[in-house]
Amino acid sequence: MFNRLTVFLYLILALSTSACAMPTGMSQAGNITAPSIDEASGLAVSRINDQILWVHNDSGDTARIFAIDTQGQQLATVNITGVNNTDWEDIASFVYQGESYLLIADVGDNQARRSQYQLHLIKEPDLSLLNGQKNLSATPIWSMAFTYPDGARDCESVAVDVIKGKILLLTKRDTLPILYALPLIAPTQQSGSNNSSTEKIKQQAQRLGEITPLPTAMLDYVSIYTWAGFAGKPTAMDVSADGLSAVILTYTHAFYFTQTTQGDWLSLFSTTPQQIALPALKQAEAVGFSQDGQSIYITSEKIPAPLYKMDLNSAGMQQ
What we know:
Signal peptide: 1-21
Strand content: 35-45%
Radius of gyration: 19 Å
Helix content: under 10%
Distance between the termini: 38 Å
Low-confidence stretches: 5-19, 190-195
Number of strands: 22
Shape: globular
Keywords: Signal
């Protein structure tokens, strides 16, 4: 005769099995296996190199980013000079006035103890000019030190809205995630890699407000992340190049928000998103839109890290 514990264990097994199923429209593009990329905490799709992604490690690594192909193979390492990796949590790619840039976000703060946070803007390296070179360096065009108006915050989700000239930040450990914004400061140099000086900028983020709680599925309630207090907590974010869509990642789901005309992000994040249940991932903390905005790439910390691609027009999307 089944007791309650047995039924509960069967429920966990059934849900865990369903979590491993691949949603319609999602495919595994590859695996990240390079020993140097052991905590992929941010991902951005290149705007000038076809089929190339940029990733970086979490805290504990040096100040560097990695170019990988869409199968997960490491192609190049870019050392970012003059800065540190205190707790890098996200990276964003965007095009401004015909030039492609990468924004690196040093914004993690698990204990909410930091006095300020850092953003670093570099010109995106053109890999077609490397001539087989595997290691290169880049100096930030500008580095922004910023604070929040209401105290220290832990954040792992940063995105750039070029259309509105905003950098969006979404907190992780608050009861309701809080959305903040910073101005996207225009690049003042044409090449960060050949200039040893970095423009120093100080800003205070604007608090836009709390977002509506992200939907949770039954899977979240039997997940280890629930017991750790992280169910439904944002771990990464990206905005599409046209500024009309956004994706927010958690440890168990991705949430896709879209609109037909430009609106404010706080209002959009209060609407019901389309949900994407993730296959089993050790620690999903990296997401990025494809160049055309029709799909997203997702990967995880730890190695080997599966690299997934999701077609946003597929039947695997749920309201």
